[in-house]
Specification:
The protein is α+β, with helices and mostly antiparallel strands. Helices cover about 30% and strands about 15% of the residues. It binds protoporphyrin IX containing FE. This is Cytochrome P450.
Length: about 190
């Protein structure tokens, strides 16, 4: 929500997709998700920039192994810095910008097959809730954007939003987002 409020053109694009696919007379359903590629791209881009588990869960090398030119001794503790990987300028164009479009018409997904993008980890210890989390985050974001118009409290400009992250157990927003909702659906369901 913070990135969308900060980038009103992206929010408009998402509202537009929701209006076209669902219309403004009913709420979003789980079965709509497969027809909302821009929504999915917004979630992927958010997980790239603001991956909650920035160093994955610590892993251990069960045997000495070679990774590129590095020898990893048996029993080393391994931390994978997804925060750095997913903002690496050698891999990502304009890495600090919120650009969901980079995931449109792209086969890159978060299933752990592409080490440039691993917000849920990879391999045997990949997040077991990947599929659940992917659906719930899309459903919640779609419902928030589809059911309400969002604006900032008077006097706050999108460009001034504080986007600093804070590292606790997972990465969180240092300054909570304050927004004002206004119902937009023309239905009695909300
Ligand atoms: C967007 C939401 C989520 C993200 C980005 C996420 C990400 C991750 C990551 C990066 C790992 C570590 C993988 C690794 O070290 O290779 C992990 C592990 C795990 N996640 Fe998630 N997760 C999310 C939601 C959830 C939810 C909702 C649950 C539970 C209902 C959950 C349960 C777990 C568990 C139990 C593990 C440990 C798996 C193991 O070590 O074998 N996650 N998750």
């Amino acid at each position: 929500m913070s990135e969308l409020i900060k980038n009103p053109d992206k929010l408009l694009k998402l509202e537009d997709e929701l209006n076209k696919v669902i219309g403004i007379r009913r709420e979003v359903k789980e079965s709509d998700l497969e027809n909302l590629p821009y929504l999915h791209a917004c979630i992927k881009e958010t997980l790239r920039l603001h991956s909650p588990v920035t160093l994955l869960i610590p892993h251990r090398a069960t045997e000495t192994c070679q990774v590129m030119n590095y020898t990893i001794p048996k029993d080393s503790q391994i931390l994978i810095n997804t925060y750095a990987i997913q903002r690496d300028p050698e891999v990502w164009e304009d890495p600090s910008s919120f650009r969901p479009e980079r995931f449109m018409n792209s086969s890159m997904d978060y299933q752990g097959n592409d080490f440039r993008y691993i917000p849920f980890g990879a391999g045997r210890r990949i997040c077991p809730a990947l599929s659940f989390a992917s659906k719930v985050t899309r459903l919640v974001l779609a419902s928030l954007v589809h059911n309400f118009e969002w604006s900032l409290p008077e006097g706050t400009k999108p460009a001034e939003l504080d986007m600093e992250d804070i590292f606790v157990l997972v990465l969180d927003k240092a300054v909570p987002l304050k927004v004002v909702p206004k119902a937009r659906l023309q239905t009695d369901e909300v």
